[in-house]
Automatic annotation (TrEMBL), chains A, B, C:
Aspartate/ornithine carbamoyltransferase carbamoyl-P binding domain segment(s): 33-182
Family: Belongs to the aspartate/ornithine carbamoyltransferase superfamily.
One matching Pfam family: OTCace
Record keywords, A-Z: Transferase
Gene Ontology molecular function: amino acid binding; carboxyl- or carbamoyltransferase activity
Name the UniProt record assigns to this protein: Aspartate carbamoyltransferase catalytic chain
The organism's taxonomic lineage, starting at the top: Bacteria, Pseudomonadati, Lentisphaerota, Lentisphaeria, Lentisphaerales
Start and end residues of each Aspartate/ornithine carbamoyltransferase Asp/Orn-binding domain: 192-342
Gene3D superfamilies registered for this protein in UniProt: Aspartate/ornithine carbamoyltransferase (3.40.50.1370)
Length: 367, 367, 367
């Protein structure tokens, strides 16, 4: 219950574990704010998977596109991006356009009232005066939570969608990554039982951190956590995997694992989190996937990357059918659209439209 | 008549009083450009009040929202904001979205042709080639007028809506302030006869300057003009109040007036108008409204603020039912939507739609 | 055929002549990417002329506007403008709005993933994940071509519309210039046989370079190429005119040619292409059109300018009926809308709608 927030101070709230915070981000047992990947369970992931597939299918016709655009034209979303972003920003924006949601941006603090000394809380409340959603990326950890806390205490709580905050949380990326993995194995027996190689900067890559946790919902999967020593997966994730009795392997080698991987998830060195003299090396050539490796990969191996990439992923791979990263990128748009319809309850209308179409076409609604 | 502008030079035009300029901003006895609060009369204020209420009511249903969005989808508006703004910008933009008006922005001179040496007049004429409205904020006083003068002399005059120019004029803020005041007293006998306490930087706060003048349309209201000595209300407004035989009191005290106020309008020190070494003090603690004052306020006192605020308005007040500033902010969106439909004549369609709804519902159209 | 691009390397492709590149920018004999004015032939120009006129006419009614907005609401366009632009940007954006196309912008590299080291090709492929068009302006010559080459080799080729790249190409400006010329002579026997005076910086003005070439499709026209010695028309254009056996005159005088001109196309010194110490003079007063010249111009002379202007075109001329530059500017919006419907095949729906209207109105569809 959002309104429970009135009974807890901000500092007490901050001290809660992600698990304990969950109820404050839900309403009537349903996701309201989307802030952490810890809010997701298998049922949610399954629902979003199905919904994303249906939205993609519906949008293939002009008629279907118009149905989708007719769902939420009376909704307005604020894209509040206080950090550079191309993919997350554009995919959220185009997801809104698919659903008919009107958008506005604040991407530059110098043209807003923050230059007049406005507090973060007042900025967020102001957005809530005009919009039905706030989609926000912020360099400061915990700001998305603070926005949710502030709105829960106001007369107009509206959903906060966390589009990346600080080093840790980027929950919609986790959703699209899981979606892409599952979609890649749709005709190959599903994600269960597959071996996933995560490679690169596992310490600071928020996508691989979230993915490692969500993968525990899929019994029988195995993780290979392959990174340079200085960027190995942090202890909290390792403990989580242990607790869930996951099969995993920590490794500082890369190439030797390629033949056994059903999916390879590459990441780049997250050096934007480095500051000043603490600049790390920009790349680790031994953790690069190159065209010459293609011959040793499995025939149906799914190659993924959250993008942008640098030299850790050879662009000569792009046209190989196993390269899924461009689709992964595009999936971000569909999955974010699915999430927004779920939060507002419009997913029900989509399900019912799809079921009608399937009845007419006399084919199965099981997508 | 706009076309009369052809017979007067820019320098002669500039020398006219606001009263004398009014006819140049009207067409067929109807507001065309919205530049000064001096253009408004009681009839106009009453009409916008009613219209704003109706638009709010209609928009509550999806069906109503779609009706509103179907009104002006063939209109395009330019949001030309050469100064930082959050509220005015976002409320105009979302007002456009409510009416289906398509928008574009120019908020950064460095990405437009002004960097190639284009004059202000050419920039404005260019906007008139593509848009049906120009909504503009400019740091230079008189620029909105100059834009209107320039377009009146062109083949494609389109309305200029002044969203704040220089230190003086911000007419749509005045509209939403009056709206919020009246709305706050809707069930308490109306604005007439009420005591309004204006507090803070009355010298440079353009909102309190405009409000003081518009309040003269409401017989029996009393103004208390409470400010530090160095920021007291300017002589021109005082003379205007005298001329209208208004009941007012100039005071450099604040707290002692709180118990008698039906509405309290707080403002912040407008130090963005200070330059260089001339920086004033940033705040005057004795002109701050704090949570501990709530107990001495009237039960139905309306607390307002144009926002953004600093320490002159304690955020601990936010959840008190008498705090109206977040609603005031949101009213800006509805009131600006009302203004745009009025200027274009689409208010008639709204009135007729509303009257149909009321007939069907068998309730009164008197809102 | 776009797919032929797979068989040619980028460096071999770059070495091709514009003529040889044409097939790579077409699909099924139809324009796909719009990159060079060399892609246009008389048939194309005639079609766009007719289509532009029809779109203008249809849009005059609200019903017609709604028909146009209903054409492509399921399309999304990326406006990727890496150089300052007002007119080209706004006219493309409003053209999209006329057709119901949803837009997004990238106008500032500092808020996109380029700051994280993303390559140009990856940026373009990313846009192709979310959009149906890329409308791009880039300071680097050949970047629009490189974008097209890159997408032709991808799984999701989408049209690139070149909105100005480097010093040379700005094909949609050429389309609107030819449109405006023809429209100006609609009631005066058409463009054929007319004398066109091009004046100013002919060396670096990409609009006059393109226009000189397209004018060769209109038999009997004569060009007067009037410029300061240091900015005279480059040899490649002169050779092209010779090859096409055009009637033209190269002159370093201006005023003496005014009485014979049916159209005067003024340009400003393109000093944004100058760098550092190499700054040229900013203006050449003897190549300026001033109000005092109006008396020696032909009665139906069309005065044009691509804008923005400086002192080479006296603003006192603006209200003369022969001044066509504001219309020219507005024509950019209609002509770009026409181009986008042509590339996507939606021009057929427009033609058929128009033909129905004409049947109903019992007037001729010949516009």
């Amino acid at each position: 219950m959002l309104s429970e927030t009135k009974n807890i101070t901000w500092s007490d709230f901050q001290a809660l574990s992600p698990e304990e915070k969950k109820p404050y981000f839900s309403e009537n047992g349903q996701l309201f704010h989307c802030l952490h990947s810890q809010q997701f369970d298998r049922e949610f992931i399954d629902h979003i998977y199905k919904l994303t597939n249906i939205i993609r299918s519906i949008s293939k016709s002009k008629k279907g596109s118009l149905f989708l655009q007719g769902l939420m034209p009376h909704y307005k979303a604020m894209l509040y991006f206080m950090q550079p972003s191309t993919r997350t920003y554009l995919s959220f924006r185009t997801a809104c356009q698919i659903l008919g949601i009107q958008t506005s941006d604040v991407r530059d603090a110098s043209i807003s009232s923050e230059v007049k000394g406005e507090t973060f809380e007042d900025t967020i409340r102001t957005f809530s005066s005009y919009f039905n959603f706030i989609i926000m990326r912020h360099p400061k950890e915990g700001y998305a939570e603070q926005a949710a806390y502030c709105l829960n205490n106001s007369e107009r709580p509206i959903p906060i969608l966390n589009a990346g905050s600080g080093k840790d949380q980027h929950p919609t990326q986790a959703i699209l990554d899981i979606y892409t993995l599952r979609r890649s194995f749709e005709h190959y027996g599903g994600l269960e039982g597959k071996t996933i190689l995560l490679a690169g900067d596992l310490l600071r890559g928020r996508t691989v951190r979230s993915l490692s946790k969500l993968i525990t919902f899929f019994p029988g999967t195995k993780l290979i956590l392959s990174s340079p020593e200085k960027f190995k997966m942090a202890e909290d994730v390792i403990s989580f995997l242990d607790e869930k009795q996951m099969d995993y392997e920590v490794s500082n080698e890369f190439i030797k694992h390629l033949p056994e991987a059903d999916a390879i998830y590459m990441t780049r060195v997250q050096d934007e989190h480095d500051t000043g003299s603490d600049k790390s090396e920009k790349s680790f050539p031994e953790f690069s996937l190159r065209a010459e490796h293609l011959s040793i990969l499995k025939e149906h191996c799914a190659i993924m990357h959250p993008l942008p990439r640098r030299e850790e992923l050879d662009s000569a791979i792009d046209n190989d059918p196993r390269a899924k990263y461009w689709r992964q990128e595009r999936n971000g748009m569909w999955a974010r659209a699915a999430l927004m319809t779920h939060i507002t309850g419009y997913d029900k209308k989509i399900m019912s439209y799809w079921s009608d179409i399937c009845k007419q076409a006399n084919h199965t609604a099981d997508i």
